[in-house]
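WARN retry 2 of 3 for item q-0093 after timeout on previous attempt; input resubmitted unchanged.
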Amino acid sequence: MNLSSSVPPEWREALGHPATVLAFRGVFDQQLLVALQRSLDQRLAALQIDRELAETVHDVLVEQVQNIVQHGSPAKRSATAGVPPLPFCLVRQTDPENERSAGTFEISAGNPLATAQLRRMEVLVEELNGMTPEQLRNLFQKTGRSGRLREDNSSQLGLVQMARKSHAPLHVESHSIPEIPEPDYFFLSVQVYSFMEALLIEATSDTPLVEFQAESGVLRISGKSFPQNVFQFYQPVSQWLTAFLESAPASVELHLGFNALNSSTTKVIFDWLDLCEQRHEAAPGSVRSFWHYPNDRGSLQQAGEDFREAFEELPFEIADDLI
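OK item q-0093 returned
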């Protein structure tokens, strides 16, 4: 048996793809980690990747390799299977020819892992993928302050850090190794990309405040909405929201808070919520919507209830907390 037979086909193909920035398979140790970091930094500099994104890719690679060095379980040689699969790591651009996604990187790693530990990792990753950025931050602090330097604690810290840096849910696969009952082979993939610039439109007497933050995934619109040309005013907002949701963000909160709005604005909101529902269907739990209204405006409360009824599958909360 050789390593390539255990690597998922799409990752095996990526090992030799022109979009591959760095790839290694073999025996990992701390000395190798230093060499991999240096090589990665040089390649990212040659690609003229912006500093913040390059640092994130670097940090995730370090976490991936540290997991292999500290927690990987060596697979034993089998008389029938031959040499067991070795660990590997891979950094690649997902689509370097596409300007919109040229700044998107996938950092993947695979290594033999004891079956019981692999199952714990799978459960943890599933839990992490369902957490908001705030929940991930709190979990990281709680785990870091626990004072227990156990192996499972260290593994959890590394996974939490990768989940915090990843801009899409962590992707996990596991495969049994033929003729070798223990361990299994564990694959983890993390995706990071350049953040879109935030969108900020100041409020006027007739138009609302628009404050969309890609990094946090929190999108807020609040105020009055009576623009002279609704579709012209909201066109950049809709374009930004569409592009952001297409980038598959791990967590989105859309907060809508209107003191007053016209029917044309209502049509635009339907379009936004339709986009959010599509993203929610593709990644359940990744999008939450909030409707905020003044407690003395029953018509706006009813509008929120109408939206919630129209989009039954989309998590949608209503609160009378708009001042």
